[in-house]
Amino acid sequence: MTALTTALRDPSATLPRRVSPRATVSQTLTLAWRATMKMRRNFEQMFDVTIQPLLFTAMFAGIFGGAISGSVSDYLPIIIPGLVGQTVMTACVATGVQLREDMDKGVFDRFKVLPIARIAPLAGPMVADMLRYLIAGTLTFLTGMVIGYRPGGGVFGVVAAILFGVFAGWSLAWIFTWFGTIGRTAQGVQATSLMIMFPLTFISNAFVPTETMPSWLRAFAEVNPVSHVISALRDLANDGQVTADLGWAVLGLAVIIAIFAPLSVRSFNRKM
Predict the structure, then answer these.
(1) Is the per-residue pLDDT at 12 higher than 80?
(2) Residue 229: which of 266, 204, 195 has the closest Cα?
(3) What is the rounded CA–CA span in Å between residue 11 and residue 228?
(4) pTM of the model
(5) Which of 42, 210, 228, 254 is within CB 3.0–4.6 Å of 221 for a Cys-Cys bond?
């Protein structure tokens, strides 16, 4: 008989307060599966990682290619990895919005009586969203190849870049997860998240070299974790190389996780 069954049959019984790491992983994967089922039943949630990469890749390459690099073909090695980072960041926003919507609907009220790890309801959907980041990165590279992009890093470089993009998306999503736990409405969470997402994405080296920016803007762009992520993506995809930018990117992402994961769990526990 499970602890949950015991508690339901005997109201005086107490649920275990501590959950083992193995049980935490199992519960997280269970809730991740629940989130993937929601995606399958509501495919509109996937538009930002299916339709958007196709549109942005075609439009941005055609609009900025000639002005920035002289031709679309010369711009593709710059813009394709940049769009992978930008698309993943956009998909991260949906993580916090969906979390807020579930909380508003009372979904997490059901978890209060379950003997599960408190981080599982947060980490589960985020693990499921890694599938969305994988789709976004893959479609962006495929679209780029269709219009002429030829990554010098080969298959290994492209696969490594996509996987690193997935990890970067999961790490950055903790920021927007925190917004989801402290926001009052899903619309408010989305507005706040976009205010953070746009500066992080556009004040970076995603679309233009930082050398062309004013000194004060360049200073921010060069310490922006997104810039290091995109530089690492370019090094992997275009050259098949692991450079210092990858190390700085991993360090920056680790700091983000260390700050925003505890904040998310703490504020989530207060709401629970």
Answers:
(1) no
(2) 204
(3) 53
(4) 0.83
(5) 210
